[in-house]
Amino acid sequence: MTRLTAVLICLAVPVLAQPPQASPVPPVRWVDIKTLGLQGQGWKDTKEPFDRLPAKAEGVVRAPVWSLSRDSTGMYVRFTTAAQHIRARWTLRKARLELPHMPATGVSGLDLYVRHNGQVKWLANGRPEKQSNEQALVNNWTGGEREYTLYLPLYNGVQSVELGISEGAEIKPVQETRKPIVFYGTSILQGGCASRPGMAYPTIIGRMLEWPTINLGFSGNGQSEPEVAKLLAELDPIAYVLDSLPNLSAQQTAERVEPFVRTVREAHPTTPIFLVENVVYTNSELVASRRSYADKNAHLTEIYLKLKNEGDKNLYYIPGGMLLGTDGEGTVDGTHPTDLGFLRMAEAIAPAIRPVLPYPRRMFRGGM
């Protein structure tokens, strides 16, 4: 064999690529997020740490409401750290990670935001791959201490959530003393079908207004029942936003909304209450059966005017016509918003809420 032949044979033999070497996982210490002060939770006397209703609600509210109250939607922690590395590990209550029309990142994922140049900006998410997950959120960050917000899953519950912080770095909770805005409603309010937890519209509003929020959305079951009204009346928020019409018929709207509002009002004579119209379903112009929202909204208008005429000076009304826009592009299925739809809802509702909030005498500093 000549030298040339040997060279040609070597060139013809494929060289097997070496597998990439996994980057070493930096050492971290794990912190249970409960030690940072869980926010977005109305009651502390819960059956499990991440429930949205108190333990006493089991057997009082309907079984589907109780089951949905185990979902962690709207809950979050705020903290500061100068850690260069931040990891997350979380264990979910339900093995199913996604829905047919909603991705796993929204149903079961985590969402991390950071304050940057005076605004709260999205930074990273935890993408669930199984019931128990561990992932890096921040790698090799320098520049000192920053303020973070970590949002929990929308349509799944969590058994535990921990943050892994670079060894030697300090982590401190950001305390919240202001009364929250309490949102009550349906699957739309709970966050279906956001791509990630930070995009549910009450959460977007919380960032826009820089105000704490509580999400009491119950998918398919935000039906304005008296037992739920009594629970909401136990809270002490800065305002209530009631958005339950998508789960009510026109008759139920006429029968249930007024007693619901009166129960809350009796406990809170001067607290602002916002009534939100049913969204205009984005295919209703083409599908006649989808125009049922009109009768419900008409009943809501009657209820609002009746209560205002009785002297309720702290009752407010939010029309539904512009909540999803007019181009038909804001939903997954004509009803449940995409991230675009949720942003539009927040942009329509936040300006109505802002005037009732007792901001300090400074220029408002909002941010997505």
Structure notes:
The protein is of the alpha/beta class and 368 residues long. The protein has 2 domains: 24-40 and 75-175, Sandwich (Jelly Rolls), CATH 2.60.120.260; 178-357, SGNH hydrolase (Rossmann fold), CATH 3.40.50.1110. Helix content is 25%, strand content 22%. The chain has 9 helices and 14 strands. It has helices at 3-12, 63-68, 104-107, 187-190, 201-209, 226-234, 250-267, 293-309, 339-353; strands spanning 28-32, 76-81, 86-92, 110-116, 119-126, 132-138, 146-151, 158-166, 171-173, 181-185, 213-217, 239-243, 273-276, 315-318. The strands form 3 sheets. The protein has a 5-stranded antiparallel sheet, with no helix packed on it. Strand 4 and strand 5 (119-126) form a beta hairpin. Helix 5 crosses helix 9 and helix 7 (250-267) runs parallel beside helix 8. The longest helix has 18 residues, at 250-267. The relative contact order is 0.13. Residues 7-11 and 362-368 have low confidence and may be disordered.
